[in-house]
């Protein structure tokens, strides 16, 4: 560092002036490197006199006439003049010369080999700046070759975090314009321009008479993409492909997976994509050949378009290579640009599941319809929801409009129009309402007999398929033991009657205004429901979810000394009734809110929960057409709703079913309830596409989730992977290896993401870095095996040195294993600066 250099100079000069005799020492600093620092030198026993271009006679007079007793250091920030032009030449004959070039001082100060002095002298201009020199010192780099010195200088100019050519190249490629790069200007200014390009040639094989960053980046991306292609490289790219592909793959893998450089990679890929005309070129290659290419986002664009075309043709058996549409979507979403296109692939996965059910068939009996719905058919409603959740979160979704129409047609006309009539044709209302799974029996079967403190969370309009999503989330939590079943809700499937059915009761009465009395007691508010609950269970209470306190002390006040707590949660119904297209988004929010609520309460001495709903809902995106609206002009119902009406007379219209109300809720109510058989609605004032009240599986089959949380902590562990391939010696630049996920992910074994790569004994990564997410739940070990491909850097390897295959957890950096190998690649070459 500069301060150390000055100390060395001071020490050396003080040695010159030891003794009692007068001494004059001349110091000609040819480059004027220390002109700004000469005044800070502390010379013992001598004065400092600075020469300028015009004070030589004054200096001669000073030294030989004015002050003939004092010792002097005469400093000249320029070269020594020729003898005949040097007025002070005679004084030099009886004085001494001092030499202190910066290169010599740097070699001494850095404690490097004397043979490196020429390279320091070559770049002395760089060390004229104290700030630049300080950055150079801060790297504490291993300086054993000229190249190492120049790499460290480049690193200082680029302000990299480490002194390495790989990091220099990252900064250069990702900073500013490729055609007018400031770092290249700095390299040229400090005589590093040719060295930079020579290192590019040695490390990645890029060599041209007039090299440019644009051509360099094009070479790297073309080489990277070419290696991932499953057939021949396009002719337009072949001239760019480097023979040192291993180094390029390792470099770009590191760049795209970097938290620091990831976004810069995307910008760079966009520029090079235009140069290589990627969009048009890959269209002619074929989908099967590009499924592994993740260098450019345009690959995803082509794949997305291909999948859309297949789905529009209802070609669910289409494959690309050996992958079907589902596998292709799951593969691509894990690629580099997968995060950008995640919603697109989620949408297409959902569309695929719906398209493959275009020939949907429904059972005929009520029991079989319900059985099939709770085991599999509910997934069609879920996939439909997932489709629109993805679509609604996209900024530009016009490309999917035709597919959306196809999905809408399948869901409405191929699924609902088949399922709903079959369901209604099979209904025996009296039998259903007396069934042990009837919602009317909820309190008797699940609450009255509870031995432990129980929290019942009733989520308004949480239909069965949403309950399944919550159930899965609970199952994935190691501290939750969850079971799911179903109940058949009452008709009409509305909030007033559904909430009442879940409370203790002998008789439910539907009033003319739509409100419901329980044993002649009103039930249309939380407080009134609490009174009804207290009459059966004195140590109980009712509360709205939004009123559940956050603070632990306040929670204790509510949940201490009570046996049962009803919590009313209203996310889905609230948003469904108030906004045209928010109900599906509300479903996801509801799942997360209830899960969080259970987790929060479970640490406050509540360990048993029941989650259910008052009713479900029916929703389709396209607005109901006039032909889907049933006219009620000749009827005078007392209660009207888009999905049901109640009146003294049944509605006798095509596509409508009517039943005596007393058959459903009991008692002597002589009115009739009428509802559409299919997915149609009554023509009434107002309304949205979100509806409920009639008899469809989506409206009346509701979830019943029982949750028990662990009182003690359950230790979990990250799932581990292991190497299957027996590899001891590496003899090729490209090495495929087989691994296995040791066990399936389950309650106590959680998914983990690993970084896997090869490294030298001194810590240098010598291959690309593979990122693998171990998240498989398959019990069959063969389905948990996977293959990864490693590309070694083009460099010389010492067959007697130690190299390692390393697997580490991505976040924690904890090393899972280090497998020792020998690397003996005959044709690998390079100068040690490859990546």
CATH level 3 topology of the domain at 430-619 and 700-709: Alkaline Phosphatase, subunit A
Q: Which descriptor suits the 3D outline? A: elongated
Order of strands in the sheet with most strands = 8-23-14-7-13-12
Q: What is the percentage of strand-forming residues?
A: 15-25%
Largest sheet: 6 strands, mixed
What would the average pLDDT be, to the nearest integer? 90
Helix/sheet category: alpha/beta
Q: Work out the oligomeric state of the chains in this entry.
A: single chain
> Judging by the overall fold, what is the CATH architecture of the domain at 430-619 and 700-709?
3-Layer(aba) Sandwich
Describe the structure in brief.
With 835 residues, the chain is of the alpha/beta class. Among the domains are: 2-100, no CATH class; 290-341, no CATH class; 342-424, no CATH class; 430-619 and 700-709, Alkaline Phosphatase, subunit A, CATH 3.40.720; 717-823, Immunoglobulin-like.
How would you describe the overall organization of this protein?
This protein is α/β, with parallel strands linked by helices. Among the domains are: 2-100, no CATH class; 290-341, no CATH class; 342-424, no CATH class; 430-619 and 700-709, Alkaline Phosphatase, subunit A, CATH 3.40.720.10; 717-823, Immunoglobulin-like. Helices cover 40% and strands 17% of the residues. The strands form 10 sheets. Strands 8-23-14-7-13-12 form a 6-stranded mixed beta sheet. Strands 26-33-32-29-30 form a 5-stranded mixed beta sheet, with no helix packed on it. Helix 19 (342-355) runs antiparallel to helix 20 (366-392) and helix 20 (366-392) runs antiparallel to helix 21. The two termini are 30 Å apart.
């Amino acid at each position: 560092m500069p301060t150390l250099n000055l100390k060395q100079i001071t020490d050396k000069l003080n040695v010159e002036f030891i003794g009692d005799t007068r001494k004059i020492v001349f110091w000609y600093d040819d480059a004027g490197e220390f002109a700004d620092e000469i005044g800070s030198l502390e010379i013992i026993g001598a004065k400092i006199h600075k020469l300028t271009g015009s004070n030589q006679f004054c200096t001669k007079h000073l030294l030989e006439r004015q002050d003939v007793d004092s010792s002097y250091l005469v400093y000249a920030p320029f070269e020594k003049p020729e003898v005949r032009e040097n007025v002070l030449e005679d004084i030099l004959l009886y004085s001494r010369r001092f030499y202190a070039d910066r290169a010599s001082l740097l070699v001494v100060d850095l404690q490097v080999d004397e043979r490196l002095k020429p390279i320091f002298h070559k770049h002395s201009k760089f060390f004229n700046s104290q700030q630049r020199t300080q950055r150079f010192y801060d790297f504490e780099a291993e300086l054993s070759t000229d190249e190492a010195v120049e790499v460290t200088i480049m690193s200082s100019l680029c302000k990299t975090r480490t002194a390495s050519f790989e990091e220099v190249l990252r900064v250069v490629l990702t900073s500013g314009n490729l055609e007018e790069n400031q770092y290249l200007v700095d390299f040229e200014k400090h005589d590093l321009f040719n060295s930079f390009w020579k290192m590019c040639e040695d490390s990645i094989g890029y060599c041209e008479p007039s090299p440019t960053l644009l051509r360099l980046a094009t070479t790297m991306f073309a080489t990277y993409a070419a290696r991932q292609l499953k057939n021949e490289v396009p002719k337009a790219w072949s001239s760019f492909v480097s023979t040192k592909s291993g180094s390029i793959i390792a470099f770009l893998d590191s760049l795209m997976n970097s938290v620091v450089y990831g976004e810069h990679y995307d910008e760079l890929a966009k520029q090079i994509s235009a140069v290589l005309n990627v969009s048009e070129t890959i269209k002619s290659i074929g989908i099967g050949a590009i499924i592994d290419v993740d260098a450019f986002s345009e690959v995803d664009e082509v794949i997305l378009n291909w999948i859309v075309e297949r789905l529009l043709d209802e070609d669910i058996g289409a494959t690309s290579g050996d992958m079907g549409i589902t596998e292709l979507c799951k593969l691509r979403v894990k690629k580099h640009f997968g995060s950008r296109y995640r919603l697109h692939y989620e949408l297409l996965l959902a569309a695929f599941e719906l398209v493959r059910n275009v020939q949907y068939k429904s059972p005929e009996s009520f029991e079989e319809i319900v059985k099939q719905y709770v085991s599999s058919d509910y997934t069609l409603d879920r996939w439909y929801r997932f489709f629109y959740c993805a679509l609604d979160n996209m900024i530009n979704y016009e490309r999917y409009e035709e597919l959306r129409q196809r999905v809408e047609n399948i869901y409405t006309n191929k699924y609902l129009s088949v399922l709903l009539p079959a369901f209604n044709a099979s209904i025996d209302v009296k039998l259903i309402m007396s069934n042990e799974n009837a919602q009317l029996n909820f309190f008797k079967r699940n609450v009255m007999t509870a031995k432990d403190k129980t929290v019942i969370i009733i989520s308004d309009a949480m239909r069965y398929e949403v309950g399944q999503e919550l159930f899965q989330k609970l199952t994935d939590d190691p501290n939750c033991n969850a079971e799911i079943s179903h109940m058949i809700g009452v008709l009409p499937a509305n909030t007033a009657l559904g909430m009442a059915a879940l409370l203790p009761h002998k008789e439910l009465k539907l009033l003319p205004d739509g409100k419901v009395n329980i044993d002649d007691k009103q039930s249309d508010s939380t407080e009134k429901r609490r009174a009804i609950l207290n009459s059966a269970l004195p140590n109980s209470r009712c509360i709205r979810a939004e009123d559940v306190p956050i603070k632990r002390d306040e929670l204790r006040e509510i949940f201490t000394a009570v046996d049962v707590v009803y919590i009313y949660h209203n996310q889905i119904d609230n948003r469904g009734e108030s906004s045209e297209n928010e109900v599906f988004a509300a479903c996801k929010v509801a799942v997360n809110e209830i899960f969080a609520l259970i987790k929060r309460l479970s640490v406050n001495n509540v360990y048993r929960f029941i989650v259910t709903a008052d009713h479900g809902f029916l929703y389709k995106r396209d607005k109901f057409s006039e032909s889907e609206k049933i006219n009620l002009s000749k009827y005078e119902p007392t209660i009207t709703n888009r999905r049901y009406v109640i009146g003294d007379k049944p509605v006798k219209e095509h596509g409508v079913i009517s039943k005596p109300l007393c058959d459903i809720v009991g008692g002597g109510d002589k009115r009739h309830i009428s509802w559409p058989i299919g997915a149609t609605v009554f023509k009434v004032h107002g309304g949205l596409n979100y509806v409920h009240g009639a008899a469809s599986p989506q409206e009346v089959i509701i979830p019943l989730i029982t949750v028990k949380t662990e009182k003690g902590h359950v230790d979990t562990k990250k799932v581990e992977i292991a190497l299957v391939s027996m590899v001891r010696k590496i003899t090729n630049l490209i090495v495929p290896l087989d691994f296995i996920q040791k066990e399936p992910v389950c309650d106590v074994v959680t998914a983990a993401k690993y970084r896997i790569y090869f490294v030298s004994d001194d810590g240098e990564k010598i291959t690309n870095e593979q990122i693998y997410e171990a998240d498989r739940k398959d019990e069959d070990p063969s389905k948990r095996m996977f293959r990864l491909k490693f590309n070694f850097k083009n460099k010389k390897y010492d067959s007697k040195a130690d190299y390692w295959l390393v697997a580490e957890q991505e976040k924690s950096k904890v090393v899972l294993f280090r497998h020792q190998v020998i690397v003996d690649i005959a044709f690998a070459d390079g100068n040690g600066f490859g990546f």
